[in-house]
């Protein structure tokens, strides 16, 4: 077992944003020096709003978001049209993509192919093919390696659309999985598999608000919580995993947090 995940805590979501920005810019610089693009997987839920605060506010002196070099994928997506209220892509589009300043460059975004909405397995397979076309030269890699995954943590400990107790958590081969019956609506979804998530170079969770404190305590302080999807990412991603949280989200958590800094 390597080092535990990093838990960075801040007074509020807006105080968290500059440190999250710095962390993302460091991941961006390292990816660009390795292969000239920055391959990022994004979650939906509450994450895009906090991410917008980190990415869209220019601060002095610590580098720029090089949007034109970003390749954005979805860590999970709901099987709905891209303009549907439940679509993670729509959320990211409205919170972030539509607000990128003119002249700052546009990322290459990979949404789901809505031709396959009626067949969720096919939707997952097609998204996996998209990943293969980007990450795997001639099928030569076992798993895609995202430069950064930016993830949420649900109040039940789910991340992406990997829910507690799901047999999908045991998947070891497929990169993208279908969920026909998600416990959280909407029921039909696709998600990156756990091995893909934990293979990422860097993995960052963002969890804010008092509504997350019970699950944070479980994930960080209990053996049962370490078996929840977020706990499993912590265990296998080890020191590559960082959490950006606000104080209300870790109220009562014993696991040591670094407060107010990266
Ligand atoms: O359903 C989902 O929920 C999780 C967690 O959302 P949050 O609102 O509690 O932050 C999210 O990360 C995932 O992308 C989404 O599909």
TrEMBL record:
<dbReference type="InterPro" id="IPR006148">
    <property type="entry name" value="Glc/Gal-6P_isomerase"/>
</dbReference>
<dbReference type="GO" id="GO:0006098">
    <property type="term" value="P:pentose-phosphate shunt"/>
</dbReference>
<dbReference type="InterPro" id="IPR039104">
    <property type="entry name" value="6PGL"/>
</dbReference>
<dbReference type="InterPro" id="IPR005900">
    <property type="entry name" value="6-phosphogluconolactonase_DevB"/>
</dbReference>
<dbReference type="Pfam" id="PF01182">
    <property type="entry name" value="Glucosamine_iso"/>
</dbReference>
<comment type="similarity">
    <text>Belongs to the glucosamine/galactosamine-6-phosphate isomerase family. 6-phosphogluconolactonase subfamily.</text>
</comment>
<dbReference type="InterPro" id="IPR037171">
    <property type="entry name" value="NagB/RpiA_transferase-like"/>
</dbReference>
<keyword id="KW-0378">Hydrolase</keyword>
<dbReference type="GO" id="GO:0017057">
    <property type="term" value="F:6-phosphogluconolactonase activity"/>
</dbReference>
<comment type="function">
    <text>Hydrolysis of 6-phosphogluconolactone to 6-phosphogluconate.</text>
</comment>
<dbReference type="GO" id="GO:0005975">
    <property type="term" value="P:carbohydrate metabolic process"/>
</dbReference>
<comment type="pathway">
    <text>Carbohydrate degradation; pentose phosphate pathway; D-ribulose 5-phosphate from D-glucose 6-phosphate (oxidative stage): step 2/3.</text>
</comment>
<protein>
    <recommendedName>
        <fullName>6-phosphogluconolactonase</fullName>
        <ecNumber>3.1.1.31</ecNumber>
    </recommendedName>
</protein>
<feature type="domain" description="Glucosamine/galactosamine-6-phosphate isomerase">
    <location>
        <begin position="12"/>
        <end position="243"/>
    </location>
</feature>
């Amino acid at each position: 077992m390597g080092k535990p995940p990093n838990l960075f805590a801040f007074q509020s979501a807006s105080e968290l944003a500059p440190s999250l920005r710095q962390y993302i810019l460091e991941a961006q610089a390292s990816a660009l020096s390795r292969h000239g693009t920055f391959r990022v997987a994004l979650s939906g839920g509450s994450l895009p709003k906090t991410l917008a605060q980190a990415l869209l506010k220019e601060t002095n002196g610590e580098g720029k978001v090089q949007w034109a070099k970003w390749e954005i994928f979805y860590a999970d997506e709901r099987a709905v049209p891209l303009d549907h209220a439940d679509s993670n892509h729509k959320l990211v589009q409205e919170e972030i993509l539509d607000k990128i300043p003119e002249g700052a460059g546009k990322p290459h975004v990979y949404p789901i192919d809505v031709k396959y909405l009626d067949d969720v397995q096919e939707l997952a397979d097609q998204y996996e093919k998209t990943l293969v076309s980007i990450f795997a030269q001639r099928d030569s890699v076992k798993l895609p390696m995202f430069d950064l995954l930016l993830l949420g943590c649900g109040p039940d400990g789910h991340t992406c659309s990997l829910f507690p107790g799901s047999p999908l958590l045991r998947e070891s081969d497929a990169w993208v999985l279908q969920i026909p019956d998600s416990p959280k609506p909407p029921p039909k979804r696709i998600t990156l598999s756990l091995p893909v998530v934990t293979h990422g170079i860097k993995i960052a969770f963002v969890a804010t608000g008092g509504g997350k404190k019970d699950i944070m305590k479980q994930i960080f302080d209990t053996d049962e919580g370490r078996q929840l999807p977020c706990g499993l990412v912590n265990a296998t991603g080890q020191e590559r995993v960082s959490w950006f949280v606000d104080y209300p989200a870790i109220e009562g958590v014993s696991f040591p947090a670094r407060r107010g800094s990266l």
